[in-house]
Amino acid sequence: MKILVINGPNLNMLGIREPDIYGKQDFKTLEASIRKWASELGHDVTLFQSNHEGEIVDVIQAAYGVYDGIVINPAAYTHTSVAILDALKAVGIPTVEVHLSDINNRDEFRKFSYVSMVAKKTICGLGFDGYRKALEWFE
Ligand code: DQA
């Protein structure tokens, strides 16, 4: 399947950013792992990371008619972005939401996710492995 993997703001800082929460492995390692898992599962994967909400909306819109599935870690936009929720609703592409950390057991404000309102599945608290599980969902 053709899968678009979207990573939101500050995930490019993995390895440096709060390693106690997000781990010591860097973003390049995450991307390499995603590419490896996708190829093992026979998926054709495209990776996109942005720190900008509008760019994420643009990439979701451009996915219409092109991708069979979206894996998204919207990062902080999870908890704030009606625009990303609306873009996902607009394109109607099956979406799996991933979070490295367990957003249900951290700050109160992280418990609410706009993207969960449209996601077929939400995977959180499994670190990098969550992306593998998300790719497996599309088998
Ligand atoms: C995150 C959780 C969010 O609350 C946070 O803002 C992130 C990363 C995660 O992967 O655990 O940036 O999406």
Task: Give a structural overview.
The protein is α/β, with parallel strands linked by helices and 139 residues long. It contains five helices and five strands; from the N terminus they run βααβαβαββα. It has helices at 19-22, 27-41, 53-62, 82-91, 129-137; strands at 2-7, 44-49, 69-73, 95-99, 121-124. Strands 2-1-3-4-5 form a five-stranded parallel beta sheet, sandwiched between helices. β3, α4 and β4 form a beta-alpha-beta unit. α2 (27-41) packs parallel to α5 (129-137) and α3 (53-62) packs parallel to α4 (82-91). The protein starts with a strand and ends with a helix. Bound molecules: 1,3,4-trihydroxy-5-OXO-cyclohexanecarboxylic acid.
Order of helices and strands: EHHEHEHEEH
Outline the biggest β-sheet: 5 strands, parallel
User: Oligomeric form of this entry?
Assistant: single chain
Helix content: 25-40%
* DSSP E strands, number: 5
Compute the average pLDDT: 98
Low-confidence stretches: none
Describe the strand arrangement of the main beta sheet, using strand numbers.
Answer: 2-1-3-4-5
Brief description of this entry?
The protein is an alpha/beta fold and about 140 residues long. About 35% of the residues lie in helices and about 20% in strands. It has helices at about 20, 25-40, 55-60, 80-90, 130-135, and strands spanning about 1-5, 45-50, 70-75, 95-100, 120-125.
